[in-house]
Amino acid sequence: MFGTLAQREEPNGVVPRRRAYWITWAISNPRPSDITTSLPKKKATFSVKFEDMYGFTVEGNIDDVNVLNEVRERVRDQSRVWMDLEASKGADWYLQTNDGRMSVVSLKLSKLTNTITLKNLVRKGIPPTLRPKVWLAVSGAEKKRSTVPESYYDDLTKATEGKVTPATKQIDHDLPRTFPSHPWLDSPEGQASLRRVLVGYSFRDSDVGYCQGLNYVAALLLLVMKTEEDAFWMLAVLLENVLVSDCYTDNLSGCHVEQRVFKDLLAKKCPRIAAHLEAMKFDVSLVATEWFLCLFAKSLPSETTLRVWDVLFNEGAKVLFHVALAIFKMEEEELLRARQIGEVIDMLQTATHHQYNPDELLMVAFEKIGSMTTNTITKERKKQEPAVMAVLDERLKRLNTLRDG
Asked: How far apart, in whole angstroms, are the C-alpha atoms of residue 321 and residue 366?
């Protein structure tokens, strides 16, 4: 489906060894002072462009390339672990975990063992060759698809072909701006595929329709899943089951609630950072809104984003808070030195764009940030909802007053 992006599997399912990332471009015309025959006192840093395993061209330095190569080796090692488990427990052993959302009391010992094993494995990364079927299983997407006729997606795309709505107009506007440097997503085939998924879902759920941000999520799903239909069902389970409701509706009320919850969690988990940013009058939603709407797809490198999604589909939306807090935590000392709002934004954008080590990010997210249960976050959301709705209602009243005037 994706031409050169498709990955060949060896008979045992392990991703074959690929060449290390080649440097395709470096800063040219160095100054004479940059060239020396003696050892430099400080390590030189060159800007390079290279392609990651999902076909994105990214820019970084030699250290970034080295980290990516190390990550690739760990992916191979992790693939062997999964293959060994499939050999000993059966190909679909993780289906015995109650879709990754267990009630420990009701699970039998074998299910509980599988659930704990799966949770630990997923946090270390799902091998790319297994990612589509594992995501479909643990997220509940496969179960959701089983409740409708097999022809549901084909019928939906045929029924919506040629129809024009405000959602389809916005989708058509956003397609060329969705990862424009990616060779497949910027092609007519890629944009047509992405359009069918987004338009199809806009008709499935008219309350959501289409919201900017979903284009990046759906695009990355297309690059991971084997088929368009699988990407569609992953998008459906995300919006209907995994994420908070109303996150992508017209007034983005769910997203506003998430931002308030995140601000409170930052004060509890990273009090020094929160106090410093509060003194600067810095609103964390300036950076975190995009993180939550795009699920980090626009901010983190693709391989790191997909590692976050591995855990998101298995453990739920609390993972977004863990990761967002980890990003702030990892930049704590730098942030505490910042004196201007622009500095904070630049620091966080640079940190996320160069976070090529998903293991480091997830270690901080779950070990240093500490435990946060889904129930705790749900209570925080309920606490914030009235204030958010009051603000949105007041905003709507002002808009109506201006229109009437």
From this structure: 10
Round to whole Å and give the CA distance between 325 and 323.
5
Estimate the crossing angle of helix 228-237 against helix 214-224, to 10 degrees: 130
Judged by DSSP in three states, 77 sits in helix
Tell whether pTM > 0.90. Answer: no
Structure tokens at 89: 């427990």
The long-range contacts involving 188-191, CB below 8 angstroms and separated by at least 24 positions, are 190/222
Sheet holding 48-51, edge to edge: 25-26, 48-51, 57-60
Query: Contact, 228 vs 154, CB < 8 A?
Result: no
- CB burial of 300-322 (b: ≥16 within 10 Å; e: otherwise) equals bbbbbbbbbbbbbbbbbbbbbbb
Q: What is the pLDDT of residues 347-390, one digit of tens each?
A: 999 999 999 999 999 999 999 998 888 888 989 889 988 988 88
The pLDDT assigned to 318 comes to 95
pLDDT at 45: 60
Q: Which two tokens stand for residue 335?
A: 């942030």
Asked if 194 and 218 touch (Cβ cutoff 8 Å), the reply is: yes
Structure tokens at 249: 């509706």
Burial class (CB in 10 A: 0-12, 13-18, 19+), 283: middle
Helices marked H in 241-282: 253-269, 271-279
Look up residue 33 and give its amino acid. S
Number of H helices, E strands in the chain: 18, 3
Question: Can you give the pLDDT at residue 405?
Answer: 59
Q: pLDDT under 50 in the chain at which residues?
A: 1-44, 98-107
| Residue entry with tokens 């003194």 | 279
Report the alpha-carbon distance of residue 18 to residue 21 in Å, rounded: 9
Say how far apart CA 254 and CA 261 lie, in whole Å. Answer: 11
Alpha-carbon span 314 to 115, nearest angstrom: 10
Alpha-carbon torsion, ordered 267, 269, 275, 278, to 10 deg: -50
H-helix or E-strand spanning residue 55: none
**The tokens 């939550």 sit on which residue?**
292
pLDDT score of 96: 62
Among residues 163, 147, 174, 227, the alpha carbon closest in space to that of 200 is found at 163
